[in-house]
Here is the input.
Amino acid sequence: MRIPHVKDRTYGLLLAAPAGAILLLIIVFPLVYSISLSFVPLDLLTPGAPRRFVGLATYAAVLSDPRFIGSLVHTMIFVGVTLTIELVVGLAVALMLDRPWLKGKGAARTLIIFPLMVAPIVAGLQWRWIFSDQYGILNYALGFLHLPTPVWFASPTTAFAAIIVANLWVATPFDIMVLLAGLQGIPDEPVEAAVIDGAGPVQRLRYVILPLLRPAILVVLLIRLADAIRIFDIVYVLTGGGPGDSTQVFSTYIFRVSFNSLNLSQGAAGSIIMVLITAGISLLLARQLR
Here is the structure.
């Protein structure tokens, strides 16, 4: 005998309640607390001091902080460069793996997804050893080839380049796998019709494959956009935001303000601004690619 629909729904809600409670605890509560902290500051340097509502003063302090402006510029440069390179490299590798004549595709996919199984903090340590000017394998190889061996983390340009390379190693496999799944979901008929009509490889890619691949590209951009904007582990391990503040990004700025300067309210306001910027850019991307 079938249980009535209302009981079905109640039973489903009861099953989902534990997961909902956990999400409420680890996502909603910290978000609400961060918002309240940005409007009602907490002074850790003066225990027991009365708290008062300051309105948007904390947000104004963040937006007028030169360190925040610098971290905003660095984050946007990082996001633009890394997403562009990831998408181009990911698409190229996915197109290659989608070729039916390619041998050893299974082994290639296993090697490609390996970086996804490495924690970002571990990947950061690994790349710090690689870029080390004293014992790093990269400088050893450059010296063997009689090429310049820079001190990677002493210059803002080379330090930023090191962060981008390390992040590409960690993140590009995700792009490859999603785009490859999208390519394998494209029906053969449109591509075959384009071949019959005399379209070359570039024309097929531009007018047939990329439009049909748009949903997969949107997934890649939206997920990787959020990850790139809030990057912390690799930057913190490789450079710590240095030299100076030249590689400071959103997350390292929030970390320094919150835990080095003990200004939790300004750190909370910075994190809310970061969430709003991420949401705004994500909505624009979704509308452009829909």
Notes: The mean pLDDT is 85. DSSP finds 13 helices and no strands in the chain.
